Amino acid sequence: MISKFKDELILLLSILIIIPILTSINIFELLYAFSREYERYQVDELLIIVLAILLCLSIYSFKKTFDLKKTKNVLFNYSEKDMLTSLKNRNAFFKIPEEDKKYLVLINIIDFTIFNKHLGFKKADQLLKKAAITLNKILEKKLGEELYRIYGDEFAFYCDCENIEKVLESIKNRFEKKLFGIEGYKFYIHLNLAYSSTSPKYLTSCEALLSTRKSIVKSIKEYSKENEISCNNSLDMLNTIRISLENSQVIPVYQGIYDNNTNTTYKYETLARIKKDGKLISPYEFIDISKRFKLYHKITHRIIENAFDDFKDSQCEFSINLSYIDIVNENTCNFIFSMLKKNPQIAKRLTIEFLETENISDYDLLIEFTKKIKEYGTKVALDDFGAGYSNWNNIIKLKPNYIKIDGSIIQNLIGNDKNINFIKLIVEFSRMNEIKTIAEYVDSQELANLIKELKIDYSQGFLFAQPQERTLIKL
Q1: How far apart are CA 135 and CA 127, in angstroms?
Q2: Which of 203-212, 298-307, 309-318, 458-467 bottoms out in mean pLDDT, i.e. has the lowest?
Q3: Virtual CA dihedral for 315, 321, 339, 259, nearest 10 degrees?
Q4: In whole angstroms, what is the distance from residue 298 CA to residue 314 CA?
Q5: For the GGDEF domain, which residue ranges apply (predicted)?
């Protein structure tokens, strides 16, 4: 009897086993359909069918269990994986036992919001993904560690290493030398890093440290078309700075400083410019953004190199401007000391002019730097004196050779007895401490005459000379 329906039973068994596996057909519906035909079969045939049904139920149960585990794995993957960068995410990061590693490191991409606003989120996400992949490769190669995306443009990793600061500096430098391209632009992306001991886990401390190093912005800001224009201009200028550095278009210009006693040009101040399409771009347009994106020190180095080259065959004196962030940058300081050591004759004709003296937080560091450069015969000047800065005791400690009186005071001298009396005080203080005085922003003969009457030693301004390229002046 079984042989009579052998082929049909094999077909039935195959259908009951295979169809539920390969399709989403509910096995109970399939069994019900076959049960409607049970009258056609004898007892032994029905026994085989029942066994087939039990086998199908077992397979069905296994398949459902397997699908459930697969679904759980997918959900688990989503919960611990960042979908944009394919890195592990914050959830995975916090599951690592903190005692396993010595340090926790938090990384922030500087001012990534500019890319978001200019490129749009889709293109900016592509840029962020490239940056994350590159950083992860560097990290794996350098330390054998894995990078995690915490949120937004912030990443983290754990590590065990000696000389943590040196290692992080190496990772930072290697990443920041990488050029990223998107939408016809090419960018160097720069990082802020903070690290902490992992016992206890100080992620919040790292976050707090990074927050103090980010750009300062208002907590509540209304969007306007001006915001978009400003952002676009910033990104364009960032690209301009990069291209200019690569093509030697970051150049020095020189403005003469006039001796009020001899009525001749005494020395030249070196000023930074970017030359683009035959025109010179003012530092007011590029210095701030260069500081935010860590290009400022490259500009400083380029200007110093060019100025030394321009004055190597001249006997003229000249000055170079440095800000406080130059003084606290070890690489820039070492570069300056190296240039002075290699060029002793030029060093004796050089004056280092400190800008933004009211922002100096560690005057002892500035005094130490001044002592070192004076060993080479280099002189020192303080810029913008009188503009909010009044610690005369620190000036005595610093012992500058020159004080440049702030232009806002000079331009408001005529008919202003208060400012005139203040200038007299500065001149007398400077004379007693053997410091020469320089008046900035002198733009009229009447003002120049008053400055001479007040016994200010030197004058600088458009009345005497405008900043010019080396080829346009006689040194």
Answers
A1: 12
A2: 203-212
A3: 10
A4: 25
A5: 100-234
Inter-axis angle of helices 43-80 and 6-22, to 10 degrees? Answer: 10
Could you give the count of Cα atoms lying within 13 Å of 274 in the half-sphere of its Cβ? Answer: 24
pTM: 0.67
Q: How confident is the model at residue 214 (pLDDT cuts 50, 70, 90)?
A: very low
- Is the N-terminal amide bond of 252 cis, ω within 30° of 0? no
Q: Checking DSSP bridges between strand 279-281 and strand 264-276, what pairing results, if any?
A: antiparallel
Averaged pLDDT for residues 219-231: 42
Q: pLDDT for 134-173, tens place per residue?
A: 999 999 999 999 999 988 899 999 888 888 888 999 999 9
SS (H, E, C) the chain: CCHHHHHHHHHHHHHHHHHHHHCCCCHHHHHHHHHCCHHHCCHHHHHHHHHHHHHHHHHHHHHHHHHHHHHHHHHHHHHHECCCCCCEEHHHHCCCCHHHCCEEEEEEECCCHHHHHHHCHHHHHHHHHHHHHHHHHHHHHHHCCCCEEEECCEEEEEECCCCHHHHHHHHHHHHHCCEEEECCEEEECCEEEEEEECCCCCHHHHHHHHHHHCCCCCCCCCCCHHHHHHHHHHHHHHHHHHHHHHCCCEEEEEEEEEECCCCEEEEEEEEEEEEECCEEECHHHCHHHHHHCCCHHHHHHHHHHHHHHHCCCCCCEEEEEECHHHHCCHHHHHHHHHHHHHCHHHHCCEEEEECCHHHCCCHHHHHHHHHHHHCCCCEEEEEEECCCCCCHHHHHHHCCCEEEECHHHHCCCCCCHHHHHHHHHHHHHHHHCCCEEEECCCCCHHHHHHHHHCCCCEECCCCCCCCECHHHCCC
pLDDT recorded at residue 63? 57
Residue 429 confidence (pLDDT) above 80: yes
Please, is 211 exposed, middle or buried when counting C-beta atoms within 10 Å of its C-beta (0-12, 13-18, 19+)?
exposed
The answer to whether the beta carbons of residues 458 and 436 sit under 8 Å apart is yes
Task: Give the residue from 371, 415, 350, 363 showing the smallest Cα distance to 392.
Answer: 363
